[in-house]
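User: Tungsten formylmethanofuran dehydrogenase, Mesorhizobium sanjuanii:
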Amino acid sequence: MANVNKTPGKARRAEVAGGGFAGLTAAIALRQNGWDVRLHEKSSDLRAFGAGIYLWHNGLRVLEGLGALEDVLNGSHTPPTYETWMQNKSVSKETFHGLPWRVMTRSHLHNALVRRANDVGVEFRVNSEAIAADPAGRLTLQTGEVLEADLIVGADGVGSKVRDSIGFKQERWAATDGIIRLIVPRLKERLGEGEWDNTIDMWNFSPRVQRILYSPCNDQELYLGMMAPASDPRGSRVPIDLEVWVEMFPFLEPCLVEAAKLQSARYDKYETTKLDSWAKGKVALVGDAANAMCPALAQGAGCAMVNAFSLAQDMATVSSVVDALPQWEARIRGITDRCQALSADYAANRSLSKGNMFTPVALEAACYDPLRRVSSWPQ
Ligand code: FAD
Ligand code: 5PR
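Assistant: Predicted structure for Tungsten formylmethanofuran dehydrogenase:
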């Protein structure tokens, strides 16, 4: 059991809106620092959306701080290399000088966080949609109920109602490319010769722009990120158009046949949101509510988890939440802003196709250690 009684006297209360990776991280970390925490999820169950996810050293360190790392490592995978292909030829194999990274299904990560939240005593409310927040410390639910708290955390994703009810100044835009994300069986033995335990980012620019980010999550599950421009009707069609994908990636045919069976597939465009500030009064925004980013550097959830964890660190000892929130933002925001800008740039220019693009600058967010509060790689 975590140290849930650090602060003498009456425990402070946080209401967290949103049960994604950001909200769960904030809830567990606040609870570990002695807060009473209630988490509101608008869906009827606590479930991850989407297919697979990459976490790097920064996100893995958060999991360590939350006491969930072992659980997440068990059943996930670190590929031997992060390989990049251009027109089916290998152009780079990156290993990041030993920087820890991990690939997993989203449900695997989400389930581990929900288990941990239950263990430390986070109170869950499902079917509980937040519709507005007040900087004075109130959260209004769809039912009309108004809850008072010392801290309101808006972790309700890119369409955040907590954010929009308060009126933060924001820029939002969507990129030209989008992606179909799926989990399929690995079927490694049917793929023929090849280093199929690697991540392989397979780019093709002709005859059409089509890319598959091949990402093994464990022995059974394979995450496929299938990218095509939104303007390409066949590449962006769901369920996938088997013929166009097999034509470009014939060696993946067994997996693509499985992908074509998935009726629930979605094509998503990348969205970016940038706010003038992440906090007003007693309300803090974390995750995609505050800073949705293009996925090129695979850091949206990683940054969300670092920022949510850091929020709880900074709230552990303060007497004034209102004074501490701007300091939290000032302390932690720079890394996310730079990562978001570079991810947008990489996405717009399809830079990852060149290979060897995980430069030290690109790995800044990944190298951050939220427990020691320093950039700590190489050690
Ligand atoms: P969400 O995951 O959107 O969670 C929000 C939660 O709040 C949901 O459960 C939702 O149901 C709930 N909710 C919404 N509105 C309300 C409300 N009003 N009241 C109550 N509950 C509400 N990041 C990485 O780190 N690594 C990757 O490899 C990676 N790959 C990506 C690939 C793609 C194609 C994309 C688009 C993103 C990727 N990301 C990745 C980014 C990552 O998915 C997001 O940044 C992360 O999931 C955001 O988490 P969140 O908790 O802020 O939001
Ligand atoms: N990296 C990851 C990812 O999921 C995507 C991208 C890069 C892990 C999209 O699926 O460049 O779009 C990308």
